[in-house]
């Protein structure tokens, strides 16, 4: 269960980080053409020139790199004050939602049967939670009467 909660938390954090990066780019956006130097499903490298004549090859690659091919010319959006923060034009954090949800669903689809197999069926989880809730209410009412 701890692993499923941790994976779920990290997946949500990943989507939030993508939205943060998008917000930073949108607040100081520059648009230019770039060449794809290497293409992968998780990381693609690009090179582009900003209007001030500087050439940039972000070390972390481009955000949302799927379906790119080496040598392809693409439009990119970057943060003018930090040209290393760059994404493929027209893509944003919404492309991260489905993969993140998939990871969450798979982690829980694995965790629940494992916990159940180890001897803790969901009915016991709810029974235990109900018992703890009743005990907390009883303590609360005793404290109110005593106080």
Brief write-up:
The chain is α+β, with helices and mostly antiparallel strands and 147 residues long. It has three helices and five strands; from the N terminus they run H-E-E-E-E-E-H-H.
Structure description:
This protein has 147 residues and is α+β, with helices and mostly antiparallel strands. The protein has 3 helices and 5 strands. Strands 3-2-1-4-5 form a 5-stranded antiparallel beta sheet, covered by helices on one side. The longest helix is centred in the N-terminal third of the chain and has 26 residues, at 2-27. The radius of gyration is 24 Å and the shape is elongated. 16% of the residues are buried.
- Summed over residues and divided by their number, the pLDDT gives a mean of 89
Order of helices and strands: HEEEEEHH
The proportion of residues in beta strands is 15-25%
Q: Tell me the number of helical segments per DSSP (H or I, 4 or more residues long).
A: 3
- As a whole number of angstroms, the C-alpha radius of gyration is 24 Å
User: How widely separated are the two ends?
Assistant: 38 Å
Low-confidence stretches: none
| Total number of strands | 5
Question: Fraction of residues in helices?
Answer: 40-55%
Strand order of the largest sheet: 3-2-1-4-5
Shape: elongated
Tell me the major beta sheet: 5 strands, antiparallel
Structural class: alpha+beta
